[in-house]
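Researcher: Let's try something more involved. This one mixes different molecule types, so please make sure each is placed in the same coordinate frame as the others.
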Amino acid sequence: MPIRTGSRSWAALVVGAAAVLATPGALADGVDFAHEVVPILRKHCAKCHTGSARQGGYSFTDRTLALAGGDSGQAAIVPGKPAESELFLRVTSAEPDLRMPKEGDALPAAAVDVLRRWIVAGAGWEDGFSFGGAVHEAPLELVPVELPPPHAGRTHPIDRILDAHLAAQGIPIPPPCDDATFIRRASLDLVGLLPAPTAVAAFVADGDPGKRARLVRDLLADDLARAEHWMTFWNDLLRNDYTGTGFITGGRRQITPWLHRALVDNMPFDRFVRELVAPGEESRGFADGIVWRGTVNASQTVPIQFAQNVGQTFLGINLKCASCHDSFVDRWTLKQTYDLAAIVSADPLELERCDAKTGAVATPAWPFPELGQVDPAAPPAERRRQLAALLTLPRNGWLSRTLVNRLWQRLFGRGIVHPVDALRAPPFSPELLDWLAADLVAGGWDVRRSLETICTSAAYGAATPPVAGLPATAAPFRGPLPRRLTAEQFVDALWQLTGAAPGRPDAEVARQRPDPAAPPPAPPTAAWIWSNAAAAAPPGEKLAFRKRVALPAAPVHGACVVTCDNEATVFVNGRKVAAATAWNTPVTEVVTGALTAGDNEILVVAANAAAGGPAALRAELRIRLTDGTALAVGSDAGWEWSAGLPNGKGRYATGKEPADWQPAVVVADQSIWGAADAPFAAGVAAATATGPLPMVRAVLVKCTPLQTALGRPNRDQVVTARPGELSTLEAIQLANDQSLADTLRSGAGRIRAACSDDPAAIADAIFIAALARPPSAAEAAAVRDLLGTEPSDASVADCLWSVMMLPEFLFVR
Amino acid sequence: MAHRPSRDPSQAATRREFVGALAAAAGATLALPEPRRLLGAAPAPPARADAIIVLWMAGGMAAPDTFDPKRYAPFEPGLAVADVISTFPAIPTAIDGVRICAGLGEIASVLDRGTLVRSHVQPDLGSILHSRHQYHWHTGYVPPQTVACPHLGAWMARVLGPRNATMPPFVTIGQRLEGIGENEEIKAFTTGGFFGSEFSPLNLPFPEEAALAVRPPQGMDGDRFAARERHFKKLLAASPRREFTSDYHQESLLRSVDNAHRLLSSREREAFDITREPKEVVERYDTGRFGRGCLLARRLVEQGARYVEVTTEYVPFLHWDTHERGHETVARMHAEIDRPIAALVRDLEARGLLDRTLVVIASEFSRDMITEGRPGSTATDQAKSPKDFLLEPAHYGQHRHFTGGSTVVLFGGGVKRGSVYGRTADERPCLAVENPVTIADLHATLFSALGVDPATAFEIEGRPFYATEDGKGRPVEDLFA
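Model: All components are placed in one shared frame. Result:
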């Protein structure tokens, strides 16, 4: 069969690769340089012959030096010829004066054999590998930055640094992008949404020189939109999702409600880190990792996952290599990884090297004792708190640098240190990195403020430069690079353009906000109830309370406020949604996903304290339906109680439903719990959606095949950057995904109606909404050609698709 | 109204010129997406096969009830479990003196074209979870892992590329990824992993609907589909932002869009449509989804696919995952796989493709009526069937997960014809007692057959990551002719 090879095809990718990457062998003749040769040289020889140590004038820091030899004048390594290689002759010499290593035992026979085979096979070397030196490491503490003088009145600190950087590189300062580009860029970058057409027009027409900064501040002030955009970034870094491996066997937890709230509230980053590292119930999913049933590799136990994830996500340190052996690519050791892991381990942790026990036991410790150390004798929970405190010390430059580097990467398409998985390459501007990090710390770890600082610089507002290939590591700054829309941005944009967002999210997150235009939320309707008016209950009495609610339309919002003297668990339709444990501290939870159109059952298991005393329950649901109807369902005499209790899932086994449901009784003296009134009312106000809810965002729904295809990861691992390229499979999905086609068609109808079927108006509407600019004359002609004089759903859908496939749409630039 | 773009599009060069200029400027540095491949000096082994078809027996195919028959006894109430190992009698095959289980007569008749490996072994991981073992078998790594591991097929696609530039190099057939138990765990390895989605499988859960995957969406005929792409190209050419198409990212984007449309409007896409086969051919294969999947696999390989996997589909407690009625269920599985596998081997042979196509029948582990895992294992027993005496027919069959020895069948692709490698003990526990073959070594064998060095490594997050775990897999050279 003829095999076609084209230059622009699936095959071309691989054909091209072979031509580029011809380097000396790394895996010669079954000898694995990284895993076999490096450890031998490192263990027996590196102390005297790498870096600045050049005993006998010989260093093998890199391959050139390794081959060259030292003072003897003999080539240390002659590829292919061990018998002519001084290094090999010396390690095998029987002559005590010549034999290496000088001190200690001779190399074991197995090690000699590895070196011999390695040299015979050509002494291959990992491309770019170096013993020491090559891995960049900034000083632990931030280096104070003296800002260069402003250039041409550009006074923003970032511009002062970058203008000097550009001048030093002989690169002209990039010109600003146009205003339409800027509003689309800032909107997608900061809140993840396309700007509204009216906002584009107003922004472009605005003559205020401060309008870009004002726009940035206005966008950032939309807490919900900002949070739901940056949630994608954090879900990737904290490996949080609604589905995925591990959930099936209870080996994994979400942190969704906590994360959403933390982002909406712009929780200071140091506290954010502390709550993840020394977590409460709601945020423990990150530190707990993923547990698979059965035995796992020693490098994947829960404590080691903790060390890896904390190291990578917060410190920009990659401990994955160092989970099996001392890292060959940077300085992190097996012991450092195990010591960090031991902080959270309840039991002593024995070091295992490549799955073999070593006999050594880890001491709970983190890798920067210069800043202080955890107390190895303290209990694990206390050690976690100590670690969290150490991590977030302002003097810990790793934490702040890692975060600002990743923010920069999202906003400029490339990290100051690239790639962003770890801080181990030289930054293109150390001054910029440390200034931004110091500014984050000085601003009280306020991430929103850092975003504002970055995006109000002229550098952020510069035009994107044309780039021919992938820039090298530490390539100088030339302006923001184009960055591909994330799967979530693409789907959000699709929903904006078509109005096809789903009615409610899968994530149980608080999206309701006080609507200043709407009347304030109605006060609570719920009363304290029990089985009798005196609230009399034997010690430890446990009763079930229920309320059945028929919803005439689908709910778009539901939240529940509950408190109990003494404890209550709330189930909605067999799903546990809330638990209250202190009568004076009502709990508020979003329950949207548990509610459904039609019949709903609210079931509360309420218990009196073992010590006795009065008992009562107070609960209220606030619900909003698709048709705008608002409902309040408060505990009252319309509820029922029974002593028959459901199972742990809030369900009665078939045939075990109680037959004795009786009307609940409003407790006569409601003032007993007066101290809970104010917090309960506040909870109800927070639980109420007074106005329409903002569009459901892609980040809040379970991953779909389309989102998967567009690069939303499954989040089994920490993800620090998504692929920048669109793959062929993704392009196939975009070409024929049925849900995409159907969505575009439904959106087409709305656009036709809004534009009264006028082809020119349709072209303008689509272009302005999608690209923040009207079509050029040539584009308008192309659209006219597509739509004809009588646009149809099909032709408008095809026009939408064509615009959404343009690079100008698929990239933020 | 917003501003009008100032640049006159007629002043800009055409995109075609940009592509040319890019090729000239970037030349060989038109890089692949990360990660970077680490090249060894050792030459890749000579390829014995150009394509591979993995026939996946999902859920644990019991060797004693399929390809490695042992002492047989029919069911009778009160039968001592110790007195029966196989629940099917053995039948002769086209290899002298080699027997497999009754019910696999068609495969028996083509067995002289292949090799039985009766000593494949797996770790039991302390607790059996099918999807976890399947992850291990398909990636070579035990989950969880610190990076997303690529599927075996993704390695083949990444290292070898497609045989036909229009065809997706890596296709999986027969496994639904939504709406079934453990689906997230199955998804986790049905992926290109850190190689990215360019090397992920085109997943076709229903072979009879495969043509839809390479067809325009429903409601859009071919003419409209073609017109839409034409209009897109026109719009692209008219774009005032066209100067940016010299960007590396945009070029790769447009290349992928072109690839997609080339496939979706190609002659090759007919390979996805099994209704184009003559009726009598469809009938030879059509024992169900798996059988139709085998036919689809043959068509795809004929058109130049590189790696195709057809699964009987993993659904907890269904198909090979027998937790009761094992004998009955396996008899049904025999009927499902026997004809199509034999037809596939015969058809590949008749077309002269078998010599260069490696066909592999494999499963995550075997099964036994008594032992969970292997002797001495800490794995929790998940079956309720008795280990002493059988009282009910529902308990007749293999209900426990056995990791001590299973069978892999290889056809074509340079392996020996009419050969048996390795052996399990004739009595319980039926451990592999001769030439055990681990997953790493089996993978090394498959990689070698396709001309891929089992120590091939890519750099991901600064570390080397190998085709077989730590590059340690060694091909079983004795399997090759």
